[in-house]
Amino acid sequence: MTRTFRDIIFTLTLCLIVTVGFSQSKKIQIEFIGNCGLHMTDGILNFYIDFPYKSGAHNYMEFESAELDSIKPNSIFIFTHEHSDHYSKKNLRKVLKEKKGQTFGPWNISELEKLGDSLSEFNIKAFKTEHKVFGISFKHYSYLITWHDKKIYLSGDTTNPETIGEIRNIDWAFVPYWILKNAKEQGIEINAKMYGIYHLYPEQIPSAKENWDKVENIKPMVEQGEKFFIKFKTK
Ligand SMILES: [Zn+2]
């Protein structure tokens, strides 16, 4: 008798946990960390994009060391390229040692594209995109993530708008302002519901706010730690 009662309680508790778990995971939360650094979670999986980088590298945004401490255990780290304002081997090594996790970037793209096979409701496609500094090309990838049927595009540092221009129905496009500028100049139409303008210099923040704060579908990434949400329906 006691056993049955205990079983019932156990089952009810389990149901409650599952229900609460599901209702919490009906949105993807995207936190802007700095530069192109984003933390994306659905409450179950944690992805870090272009983070950890080197704080203040190339006069871009700094971050507190507490930011590294707050990284979730067993996260998946994805990098567009290895420049220090996007990627820090030293910081990454420190994080992985303490928290474990998986790391992907231009060095293991084929493994990255297989990531979707082991994760449910998640898929990532990599696009080799151009990133030249003083005429020298660096290995660089832009990414399209499809997660819970939502499309999130991560442009990185590329200056070419052609790749993003070929993708339809993007829910959130994270792009530097020069992608919008170049697209306009080249007559390329970008098909996205929302734009997150990232990779701003600290001194560009006031003008970015002025330019875009009243544009409904454009969010300048000016507030480090600001969170954005993409609602989705569970299947
Ligand atoms: Zn950069």
Task: Describe what you observe in this structure.
The protein is of the alpha/beta class. It has one domain (2-231): Metallo-beta-lactamase, Chain A. It has helices at residues 2-24, 65-69, 89-99, 109-113, 115-118, 162-165, 177-185, 205-212; strands spanning 27-34, 37-41, 46-49, 76-78, 102-104, 122-128, 132-133, 136-137, 141-147, 150-154, 170-175, 192-197, 218-220, 227-231. The protein has a six-stranded mixed β-sheet with strand order 5-4-3-2-1-14. Strands 6-9-10-11-12-13 form a six-stranded mixed β-sheet. The two termini are 37 Å apart. The site of zinc ion (ZN) has 5 residues, from loops.
Protein topology:
Elements: H1 2-24, E1 27-34, E2 37-41, E3 46-49, H2 65-69, E4 76-78, H3 89-99, E5 102-104, H4 109-113, H5 115-118, E6 122-128, E7 132-133, E8 136-137, E9 141-147, E10 150-154, H6 162-165, E11 170-175, H7 177-185, E12 192-197, H8 205-212, E13 218-220, E14 227-231
Give a brief rundown of this model:
The chain has 235 residues and is of the alpha/beta class.
- What is the alpha-carbon Rg in Å? 19 Å
**CATH T-level topology:** Metallo-beta-lactamase, Chain A
CATH structural architecture: 4-Layer Sandwich
Tell me the helix content.
25-40%
Q: What is the H-and-E element order?
A: HEEEHEHEHHEEEEEHEHEHEE
Instruction: Name the average pLDDT.
Output: 92
* Total count of helical runs of at least 4 residues: 8
Coarse morphology: globular
What is the CATH first-level class name? Alpha Beta
How large a portion of the residues is in β-strands, by DSSP E? Answer: 25-35%
Q: Report the count of strand segments.
A: 14
The biggest beta sheet, please? 6 strands, mixed
State the fourth-level CATH superfamily.
Answer: Ribonuclease Z/Hydroxyacylglutathione hydrolase-like
How many structural domains in the coordinates? Answer: 1
Q: Which sequence of strands runs across the widest sheet?
A: 5-4-3-2-1-14
Distance between the termini: 37 Å
- Runs in which pLDDT lies below 50 for 5 or more consecutive residues are none
Compounds present?
zinc ion
Q: Structural class, judged by helices and strands? A: alpha/beta
